[in-house]
Design brief:
single chain, 183 residues, alpha+beta, two-stranded antiparallel sheet, 6 strands, globular
């Protein structure tokens, strides 16, 4: 069955919006399913996506920046050197990953960053935190694609600023503030 969810009513609205169905599902090795849905925001709404995920025997969730940030902080507390190396890998992804160029590319949603060969060296981090390295890489690649779908004159840089803050080991208050900003 294709992942789906019921969007909330718009503020002040009376009509229930139609259910949304994933345009693509990515099944991870631990059974987690990442669903990619058509979005309607950003510089070009035809290129926008929404991300949801479902872990085994859990409900569908919408990932937030604060979730992966906390997970990386937990991993870092347990294996600092390997986590910093993983964070540098994620930061380098930002320079490689591009936004979707058209609706067809969004529908295919081909992800190139999460190859098992490259991720094997980070397997030790899967012992810590809630998320696997595989999940984080897929999530971050999708979030970068979303982030790069912003107007050139006002680019979004939440992921880039967050990973840079984590790598430079800014104090926790700075990191949490960046991870929870809205708008």
């Amino acid at each position: 069955m294709v992942m789906n969810y019921q969007p909330r009513k718009k503020k002040g609205g009376t009509e229930k919006p139609p259910r949304k169905y994933a345009i693509k599902e990515i099944r991870l090795s631990d059974g987690t399913i990442v669903g990619i849905f058509e979005g309607d925001r950003g510089y070009n709404s035809d290129h926008d996506i929404l991300i949801k995920y479902k872990e085994h025997r859990k409900r569908i969730r919408t990932p937030k920046h604060i979730h992966w940030v906390i997970d990386l902080l937990i991993k870092k507390e347990n294996n600092k050197e390997l986590t910093l190396k993983f964070m540098r890998y994620l930061r380098n992804m930002y320079d490689r990953v591009e936004a979707f160029k058209n609706k067809e590319e969004r529908k295919k949603c081909e992800l190139a960053e999460a190859t098992s060969k490259e991720l094997n060296e980070f397997d030790g981090l899967n012992k810590y935190g809630e998320y696997t390295v595989e999940f984080i890489v897929h999530l971050i690649e999708l979030m970068i694609k979303m982030e790069k779908n912003t107007a050139p004159e006002k680019p979004a840089r939440v992921f880039k600023e967050l990973i840079d803050a984590l790598l430079s080991e800014k104090e926790i208050f700075v990191i949490v503030s960046k991870a929870t900003q809205v708008g």
